[in-house]
Write a structure and sequence with these properties.
Elements: E1 5-9, H1 12-15, H2 28-31, H3 34-37, H4 40-45, H5 47-61, H6 70-81, E2 86-90, H7 96-100, E3 105-107, E4 110-117, E5 123-125, E6 145-149, H8 159-167, E7 171-175, H9 187-193, E8 197-202, E9 214-217, H10 220-228
Parallel strand pairs: 1-2, 1-7, 2-3, 7-8, 8-9
Antiparallel strand pairs: 4-5, 4-6
Helix pairs in contact: 6-10
The structure holds ligand BJW.
C-alpha cells in the first residue's frame, strides 16, 4: 500500500532523548571528523577506532536515561490514527521510533543495534562490543563484522520504496534534520513536485528550508505533538 504521509526524521528528533546530533557545537563530529569514522575508507584504515566509536554509541543507547521523547510518541500516535498511511523514513540509527510504538519505520542509514558481515552479507542483532577479532557467526570469517550503518559514499537503504512513497504522498514532513546530507536533503523537492504539502519542523531553518511550504521552528518534543494535534 502506498503511504500518504511520509515523515523524514533526523538527529534533532532524538536530541531531547539525550542523543547528540552530528553538526551542533557539541555534536558527534566535534570529536570525530566524519571521514575518520563514517566512511568505508576510514573503516579499512582504522577499524578499531570505528568500532570504538559505534560501541560507545551502542552502550549509550542502552543507558537508562535514553528513552523516546514526546516527538517519537506523537509520530506513533499519528501512525495509529492514519493506519497504514504513514511511513517514517529515519536517518537515525537509534531504535527510539520503534520503542515509541511506530511500526512502519525505514532506517535509511542503517541500525546501530545490527551488525553485518562484509564477507557473507548476513545481517544480525549486534553484540554490545564489536571488535576486529570477532568471528562472523554465519560464515566464520574473522574481522569481517561491521556496524550495519550507511557511511558516506555508500548506498542508503530502501531508496526505491522511499521514492515510490514520496512520489505518491500528500504530506511530507522533515523533522530535526539539517539538510546537509543527500539524498535525504533532496526528498522535499520530490514530494513537492508530486504535489504534497511539505512541512519542516526543526530547531532552526535547515539548509533546504526554502523548499518547504511550511516551517515550524522549535524543539521537536514540543513542536511535533503540536503538529500531530
Ligand atoms: C533539533 C533539535 C531539537 C537539534 N528539536 N530539531 C560531495 C562529495 C562527496 C559526497 C557527496 C557530495 N555531494 C553529495 C554527496 C553524497 C553524500 C553527501 O550527502 N555528502 C554531503 C556531506 C555533501 N551522501 C552519501 O554519500 C550518501 N549516499 C549516497 O549519496 O549514495 C549515492 C546515491 C546516488 C544517487 C541517489 C542516491 C544515492 C550516504 C550518506 C550516509 C550518511 N551517513 C551518516 C552516518 C550514519 C551512521 C551514523 O549515525 O554514524 O548519517 S552521516 C550523518 O548525517 C548521519 C545522519 O543520518 C546524517 C544526517 O544528519 P542529520 O540527521 O541531519 O543531523 P545534523 O546533526 O546534521 O542536524 C540535526 C538538526 O536537528 C539540526 O538542523 C538542528 O538544528 C536540529 N535540532 N536539536 C528539533 N531538540
Amino acid at each position: 500500500m502506498t503511504q500518504r504521509i511520509v515523515v523524514l526524521t533526523g538527529a534533532g528528533i532524538s536530541a531531547e532523548s539525550g542523543i547528540r546530533t552530528f553538526r551542533a557545537a557539541d555534536g558527534l563530529w566535534e570529536e570525530h571528523r566524519p571521514e575518520d569514522v563514517a566512511t568505508p575508507e576510514a573503516f579499512d584504515a582504522d577499524p578499531d577506532l570505528v568500532h570504538r566509536f559505534y560501541n560507545a554509541r551502542r552502550a549509550h543507547l542502552a543507558t537508562d536515561g535514553v528513552e523516546p521523547n514526546a516527538a517519537h510518541l506523537a509520530l506513533a500516535r499519528l501512525e495509529e490514527e492514519y493506519d497504514g498511511d504513514v511511513l517514517i523514513v529515519t536517518q537515525n540509527i537509534d531504535d527510539l521510533h520503534e520503542r515509541a510504538g511506530s511500526r512502519n519505520v525505514l532506517h535509511m542509514h542503517g541500525e546501530l543495534l545490527k551488525m553485518t558481515c562484509t564477507s557473507c552479507a548476513s545481517v544480525r542483532e549486534a553484540w554490545p562490543e564489536l571488535t576486529v577479532e570477532a568471528v562472523c557467526p554465519d560464515c566464520r570469517a574473522t574481522g569481517t563484522l561491521r556496524p550495519h550503518v550507511v557511511w558516506f559514499g555508500e548506498m542508503p537503504i530502501g531508496l526505491e520504496e522511499i521514492f515510490e512513497a514520496l512520489e505518491h504522498c500528500s504530506v511530507f514532513a522533515a523533522i530535526g534534520t539539517s539538510g546537509n546530507v543527500y539524498p535525504a536533503a533532496g526528498f522535499v523537492h520530490v514530494a513537492a513536485a508530486a504535489g504534497a504539502h511539505t512541512v519542516e519542523l526543526n530547531l532552526e531553518p535547515s539548509e533546504v528550508t526554502a523548499g518547504f511550504a511550511e516551517v515550524r521552528l522549535g524543539p521537536a518534543a514540543s513542536e511535533v505533538p503540536r503538529w500531530v494535534g
